[in-house]
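[Meeting: bench + compute handoff]

Bench side (C.D.) handed over the final construct sequence. Compute side (W.E.) agreed to return the predicted structure before the next meeting so the bench team could plan truncations. Sequence as handed over:
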Amino acid sequence: MSIPTLLLQERHALIQQRLLAEGRVLALDLAAQLNVSEDTIRRDLRDLAAAGLCKRVYGGALPLPPLPGTLNQRRGEAPDRKWRLARAAVSLVRADSVLFFDAGSTNLAIAEALPDLPLTVVTNAPAIAIVLLERANIEVVLIGGRIDRGAGACLGAKSLRDAELIRADLCFLGACGVDAEAGITAFSYEEAEFKRAVASLSKAVLVAATSEKLATAAPFSVLPTARLSHLVAEHDADPALLEAFRREGVQILRAAAA
């Protein structure tokens, strides 16, 4: 049943509530529910996206992922869940591989969980390089450049030039938003540019994501879903969300339950 026509601010508030409660919203459904045209809803979604309150996708919109804090803050968030994701992710690591580690607290946990194998690890994240320095069987290559404190990563022109020399067997890519339609997304344009460059040169790309990042999209595109090789999800992640990735050819790994 449709509801009486709402004022602009009321529509925007209701759309935001539905994004929060349901995740993806569709313009067609919202138009019917709010008793307005699809064109009106599309304008509403454009306004909300321009205000940084959602991410437009084909046919509707997605909520934004949680805003990232500093690396130290992120390290303190859900460490047990990230450790279980890490244990699942490292099952794909093989001896003598070249691995690329993007910055991020979950990728830091994966680096800490690496098996005792001869490996080469390339990273633009100083924190990950430091964690691996005591591992005698792992050769560590640190990509240089300007350190972005928020990302905990070296970014910029030099980092991009260095990344062009890397052909990783497996890239552990950090992600802000993860959605089967929107793909892998990031909040920072510069960070998205670097991630995209590294992923494009890697044989396989893995993203390990906590559940709150699924079915969300940040403003800047990194990678289409079809280019993702592996998604590591939590044991209780929504099966319907994961099935959408499987249909795109992504291998799904589930972390163990607590």
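W.E. noted at the follow-up: Residues 108 and 128 are 6 Å apart (CA to CA). C.D. will use this when planning the next construct.
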